[in-house]
Each structure stands twice: as C-alpha cells, then as structure tokens.
Design goal:
GO terms for molecular function: potassium ion transmembrane transporter activity. The protein has about 625 residues and is an alpha/beta fold. It folds into two domains: about 350 residues, no CATH class; about 190 residues, no CATH class. It has 20 helices and eight strands. The strands form two sheets. It has a six-stranded mixed β-sheet with strand order 5-6-4-3-7-8, with helices on both faces. A hairpin with a 5-residue loop joins β5 and β6. It is elongated and about 95 Å long. The relative contact order is 0.10.
Length: about 625
C-alpha cells in the first residue's frame, strides 16, 4: 500500500508539475502575443503619421505632373505612354528601390545619406567582418587601399546630402504653389519625395513606412494617375489643368481646399528629412554646430532644429520671391530630386556589395536598370539647368563648401590636440614644478579628449602657475540610447596626482544635461562631488582625501572651459589661410561644443589658447 501510495503521489505531483509548466508556457505565449499586438498598434499609428510627414509631397504630385508635359497635339498613344512611365517609375523606384531595399540600409534606425559608414575615411568602407567570413569584396579592398576613392565617395555623399537640403528649400515653394496654379516641373516629380522615405527613417520605423506606402500611397497614386489618364484620353486638350478638370464639379471647391492644405503639409516631408540630415552631420562633426532638439524619448532620429527651420523659411521665401513661382522652381525641383535618387542608387550599390556581400549578379540586377532609368532622367533635367535648374547646384556647392571648411578646420585642430595632448605623466611633471602652486578651491575643467587631457590644461598651468587643490577633468560622452541610468551617468577615477580626478558624464539623446535633471544652484557640482566622495571612500587614504574635498568645496567652485583658436603662421600657404580663416569665422558664430550644463554664470571661466598652424 505504501508503495502504491507513493506511486500515486508521484503521478499527482507529475500532473501538477506538468500543469504548472503548461500554465507557465501559456503565460509566456500570452505575454508574447500582447507584445506583438502592442508593437503592431505602434506601427499602425506611425504608419498613419507617415501619410503626412513622409508622403505628403508624393501624394500631391498629381496636381502638376500632367500640366508639366509639353504636349502640342496629344494623342491616345501619348497618354498611354505617359501613364506607363508613371506606373513603372512608381513601381520600380518607389516600391522596389526604396520600400524594399533602401530602407534596410539604415544606420542605427536612421536613413539619411551622410551615414557615418559612408563618410568614414579612416575605417574600411561599410565593411562589417562579423557579417561574413569571406573577407572584404574586391570593391571593398579597393576603397580600403585608396584614400582618393574614399574622398571621392565622401564628396558624392556630401553633395547628396546638400541636394537633399536644397530639396527642403524647394519643396514648400513648389508644393503650395502647385495647388493653386499647377506648377510645371520636370517628369521625375512623379516620384517626388520618394527619397523622403529613406531620409525620414529616423522619425519613424521601417515597418511603418512600408505599411503606409504599400497599402495606401502606392495603390492610391496608381489609381489616381489611371483616372486622370482615362479622363484625358476622352478630353485630349485638358492636360494643362488635368487634375481640377478631372474632379467632378460638385466637389471642386472642397477638393481645392483639401489640395491646398495637403500641399502645405507636404512641405513637412523634406523639412523633417533636412533636420535628420543636419543632426547626423553635426554628430559626425561635418557641419557647424546648431541646436538640435529631440522631440521623442522613443525615437532617437525624431529631431527638430529651430535654427535650421528659420533658415529654411528665409531661403524658401527668397526662392519664391526671386523666381516669382512657376516654371523655374519646377525645373530646379526636378534637378534636385533626380540627383538625390541617382546618388542614392550608387551608394546603395556599394552597401549591397561591400557590407551586405550580396551576390554580384543581384547587385548588377539592381544597379544596371536603376542607373539607366535615373541616368535618362538626369540627362533630361540637365537641359533645364539654364532655366532655373542651376539653383540646387548653387545651394549644394555653398553647403558643400561650408561642410568642407568645417571638416578641414576640425581635422587640423584635432591633429594639433592629439599631438600636444597632456598625458598623466606630463601632468605629474607640471604639478611637481616648484613654481606651480595649488590654490584653494574646487575646479571643474572641461575637456573633449577621451584619452588624455586637452592642451589647454598645460597652457593654463604653465601661464597661471597654479591649479586648484581639487581639480576634476570632466568629459561628456554621447550614447545612442534614450536615457542613461542615473547610476551609470557619472564615472570618476583618480588620475594619480594628489587631488586630481577625471570624470566622464554619459548621456543619451533624451537626457537633459541642464543640472543633470536637478534643480538646485550648481546641481552639477553637487552630483559630481557626491560621486567623487563615494569613489574616495574605497581609497586607502579616504579620510584625508574626503577632508581635502570638503575644504576645497567650502573655498569655492569654478567651472573652466578651454577655447582653442587656430593661428595661421607666416609660412602657411594661401589654401590654409583661406580655409582656416573661414573655419574660425564659422566657429565664432556657431554654438559651443559643450552642451549647456546649467552652471551658474558667475562661476564660469573661459581659457583661450592660440594654436599655431604652419
């Protein structure tokens, strides 16, 4: 009986255990289903938002595509041929190229042209060893060996980015005016703002953009163009006002109002893309620093730049007044759209071959048809350069010159900083000098060098012959996360010399650096000092160091920032004089490299230093 009872108990326990395991599996499955449902709702909401932000320009193109056709005596064959080109352009460029291929070439969720993978001159272009065991492709090896090839590619990417910014200037003008008088632009406007799918990727998700385009935008445009074509086949001479004559009379005025409002919204697609382009270029140090505001805690690429916004507004109004609307703006717009598409095709081909290691046959199947198609469009719009098409080239060259000046100046300054940086050994030698005095007080000395200290430190110690009894060298580190945990934000270590420490403040794109989420007077100093005290408590001489920190804090706090300026020597050539002089002008009018930390103004000190460049 005992044995049978034990056996029954084991069976009951097994059944209970199995039931518990099944319940656990069910709960996990339920949680996964809820998570999938939540993600689907988010994607659908984002897809709805993309209809205005990303595709606003694309859906307003029916307003002026047919009026842009220069048809003297149109026939049935003309309209069928035009619609055929529209259909295949939307299908191949919109669906295949952008929605299915280009959206996969993102950079941490962003899809603008100046990806750091394309821009890098020092790293193998787009090559990711972990993605394949076959080693770099022949094309990848060529770019690794040739710095000239990398610079040519860099120039191409910069021009594509500048063209995209020019698109952001022209889109508001052409979109709004086209709703009123049917602007006449070149033929590639049929796929206008398709490039915004890629550029606005940072504001939305890949799945959301694909859902919106494939389920709503693409079929709607195909049907709209088909309806216009069917109407014009029966009314062959109405092509100059094909959209509004295509609309039934009772809904004419409501459609006019909706078209005008939609055209206003359409401007947002390329404006948002411009914000993304500028933000990523500033992060990569290819563009003068401007204010960038992250408008979402969930999407790192969802940004707004007030300074860029106002500049776009001024340029857009200037272009509209200068050209007076009409044909010239349309010509300029067509040039910039197709040039961005062609550059995207070339860069995406390199991504497929070098990073994705796609089979050469598939790369050729992508590159050849798209290059031929867009090459034909480019050859067509080049005839419009004298008639307004010169504008995007002028804007792009000016922006590219600004970027090149900034990049060249930053490179020369970085070379100087790295060649003259203060190491820990050099700092120990400077402080060991009998001429250097340790003055009472707590000093926060800001440095932008991760390995070593900025040359301004040595300049300050040698000329002032002093350093505060407790000095903390602070470096800011930007991370590609929304928020950094409070326990990980401030990292402190001792540098060796008495009373000298290094502090790294890590922050994400949604973090506030003003007071480090505090609200008190000089809350930054309070939080860093508290972290310093926690660090010191583990040291052998903790009691003496804590007393030193308390005494220094009581004596007063000061925040020191170094400001290095380039001085061009007499032996420098004219190129360096022009480029570095222009860089100093840009550097003087742009924002500080260190974000505002909310430190009190009376406690801020700026130390200037001239860097001689021959």
């Amino acid at each position: 009986m005992t044995t049978n009872g034990a056996h029954m108990d084991l069976e009951v326990g097994a059944r209970r255990g199995g039931a518990g395991a099944g319940a656990g599996d069910t709960s996990v499955a339920t949680a996964n289903q809820e998570a999938e449902a939540t993600n689907l709702r988010k994607d659908l909401l984002l897809a709805y938002k993309t209809l205005g932000v990303v595709f606003g320009g694309l859906v307003t193109s029916p307003l002026y595509v047919y009026p842009s056709m220069n048809l003297a005596t149109p026939t049935l064959e003309d309209y069928l041929g035009i619609y055929s080109i529209m259909f295949w352009t939307l299908t191949l460029i919109g669906v295949v190229k952008y929605a299915c291929i280009a959206l996969n070439a993102d950079d941490h969720g962003e899809g603008v042209l100046p990806s750091k993978k394309v821009y890098s001159e020092d790293e193998p272009l787009l090559y990711n060893q972990s993605a394949t065991d076959r080693g770099p492709s022949k094309l990848g090896k060529f770019f690794e060996r040739s710095i000239t090839a990398r610079r040519v590619l860099l120039f191409m990417a910069i021009m594509g980015m500048c063209m995209l910014i020019g698109d952001g200037i022209l889109t508001p003008a052409i979109s709004v005016l086209s709703a009123i008088d049917g602007l006449r632009g070149p033929f590639p406007s049929v796929s206008k703002s398709a490039e915004a799918m890629f550029a606005d990727l940072g504001h939305f998700s890949k799945k959301a953009i694909q859902i919106a385009f494939l389920s709503s935008i693409y079929p709607s445009l195909v049907l709209t163009y088909a309806g216009q074509t069917a109407y014009l086949i029966n009314n062959v001479n109405d092509f100059s006002d094909g959209f509004y004559k295509f609309v039934p009379g009772p809904v004419y005025w409501p459609m006019f109002v909706i078209a005008t409002l939609a055209s206003i919204v359409a401007s947002q697609s390329l404006i948002s893309a411009t914000f993304s382009v500028i933000k990523q270029s500033v992060v990569l140090d290819y563009f003068p620093r401007v204010k960038v505001v992250h408008t979402s805690e969930h999407k790192e690429g969802e940004v707004y730049s007030p300074e860029t916004n106002y500049i776009l507004m001024i340029l857009c109004v200037g272009v509209t007044l200068g050209f007076g609307g009409g044909k010239e703006i349309g010509n300029a717009f067509g040039v910039v759209v197709i040039m961005v598409m062609l550059i995207t095709t070339i860069l995406l081909t390199l991504v497929m071959d070098i990073k994705w290691r796609t089979a050469p046959v598939l790369v050729a199947l992508y590159f050849i048809p798209f290059f031929i198609m867009e090459g034909c469009y480019v050859s067509a719009v080049f005839t419009k350069i004298p008639e307004g098409g010169w504008l995007p080239f002028a804007v792009s060259m000016i922006l590219a010159l600004i970027m090149f000046v900034w990049y060249y100046g930053r490179q020369r300054k970085t070379e100087y900083e790295m060649a003259n940086k203060v190491t820990v050994e050099r700092l120990r030698e400077l402080l060991a000098s009998p001429e250097v005095q340790r003055v009472p007080g707590l000093c926060f000395f800001y440095s932008n060098i991760q390995d070593g200290l900025t040359p301004v430190v040595g300049h300050y110690i040698k000329n002032m012959s002093s350093l505060h009894t407790v000095t903390i060298f602070v470096t800011l580190r930007y991370l590609l996360v929304a928020k950094v945990a409070q326990c990980d934000r401030i990292q402190i270590k001792s540098l060796g010399p008495n009373g000298v420490y290094s502090c790294t403040i890590q922050y994400g794109y949604a973090d506030s650096l003003v007071g480090l989420e505090g609200g008190g007077d000089d809350d930054l100093a309070a939080q860093v000092t508290n972290c310093l005290r926690q660090h010191i408590q583990t040291a052998p001489s903790a009691e003496a160091e804590l007393a030193q920190v308390d005494a220094a804090r009581a004596a007063g706090k000061v925040h020191v920032r170094g400001k290095m300026r380039l001085y061009v020597g007499k032996d420098a050539g004219w190129f360096d004089r022009v480029m570095l002089g222009s860089y100093e002008f840009l550097h003087g009018i742009c924002r500080s490299g260190l974000p505002a930390l909310g430190t009190p103004l009376p406690r801020r000190v700026e130390i200037g230093m001239l860097c001689k460049v021959d």
